[in-house]
Design a protein that fits this description.
Layout lengths: L10 E7 L4 H14 L7 E7 L11 E2 H9 L10 H9 L11 E2 L3 H9 L6 H15 L6 H9 L5 H9 L4 H13 L7 E4 L3 E4 L4 H14 L5
Parallel strand pairs: 1-2
Antiparallel strand pairs: 1-5, 3-4, 5-6
Helix pairs in contact: 1-9, 4-5, 6-7
C-alpha cells in the first residue's frame, strides 16, 4: 500500500517539502513552536516529498554556476536574500549560503526520510537535513553524507546504505510527488491537514496555531 492508513484519533499534518527549500526550514521551526504548545496536543506530523528542481541529475549541479546562469553573471551565490535572512533569524536560524557548493538532487534525501518513519525519527531527521544543507553546506544528494547525517539521529548507517541501494521507497516517493499536484500543492511548504485541508506557505506561528485549532474542530479531532 502506497499511502498511509489514517489514524483518526489525531490530526495528521502532512508537510510537503523539499530539503533545499529555505522557507520549508523556516516553516518547520515555526511549526515546532506550535507542536510544543497546547495546540500541538493530538497532532502528528508526516513529511512528504516535493522537488523544487526535479531536473537536477543525481550528481547535482555546481550551485554557483546555477545561480549565475539563472540570475546573471553578477549574482552572488553566497548572499542570503534579505527577507529569507530576516525570517530565518527570527526563527533562530543563521543560513550560510557561502558554504553550499552543490545544488543536489533531493530524491535520495526524500527516500531517507521515508526510511526514518517506522523508527519515529522522520521529524528529527528533517531538522538535521535542513541544518546540514543551509547551515553547514552539506551535499544532501550524496549517499555518504546522508548516511552520516542519519546517524546523528540514531539511524544505523549500514541499514540506510542497504535500503537505499535496494530501491527502498522509490515507488512511494514517486507516488507522493504525483499526489502533491493532486492535492493542490504547487509550492512548498504545504501543510495538508487531515488529508483534506491545505495550508500553503511558511505561515506565522500565530496563524498556524489558529488554523490547526480550526482544523481540529472541523475534522473532529481533540483540542
Amino acid at each position: 500500500m502506497l499511502f498511509s492508513v489514517w489514524d483518526y484519533s489525531v490530526l495528521t499534518i502532512e508537510i510537503f517539502s523539499d530539503v533545499i527549500c529555505p522557507w520549508c526550514y523556516i516553516g518547520k521551526r515555526r511549526l515546532d513552536q506550535v507542536l510544543n504548545s497546547p495546540t500541538g496536543e493530538g497532532v502528528e506530523v508526516r513529511w512528504r516529498p516535493f522537488q523544487l528542481y526535479p531536473s537536477v541529475p543525481s550528481q547535482g549541479w555546481d550551485r554557483a554556476e546555477f545561480i549565475r546562469r539563472r540570475y546573471g553573471v553578477d549574482a552572488d551565490p553566497g548572499r542570503v536574500p534579505t527577507r529569507i535572512d530576516e525570517e530565518a533569524k527570527q526563527a533562530g536560524l543563521v543560513f550560510n549560503y557561502r558554504a553550499i557548493r552543490r545544488l543536489p538532487s533531493t530524491l535520495l534525501a526524500h527516500r531517507l526520510l521515508e526510511f526514518a518513519v517506522p523508527q519515529g525519527l522522520q521529524h528529527a531527521l528533517a531538522e538535521v537535513l535542513f541544518a546540514g544543507y543551509f547551515c553547514h553546506g552539506e551535499d544532501v544528494g550524496d549517499l555518504a553524507t546522508l548516511i552520516r547525517l542519519a546517524e546523528q539521529v540514531g539511524i544505523v548507517g549500514d541499514d540506510v546504505a542497504s535500503a537505499l541501494a535496494d530501491g527502498f521507497a522509490e515507488e512511494e516517493v514517486a507516488a507522493q510527488l504525483r499526489r502533491a499536484t493532486d492535492v493542490g500543492v504547487s509550492g512548498v511548504p504545504g501543510y495538508l491537514m487531515g488529508g483534506g485541508f491545505l495550508l500553503p506557505g511558511a505561515q506565522s506561528v500565530d496563524t498556524m496555531q489558529q488554523i490547526i485549532a480550526r482544523a481540529k474542530v472541523r475534522l473532529g479531532k481533540p483540542d
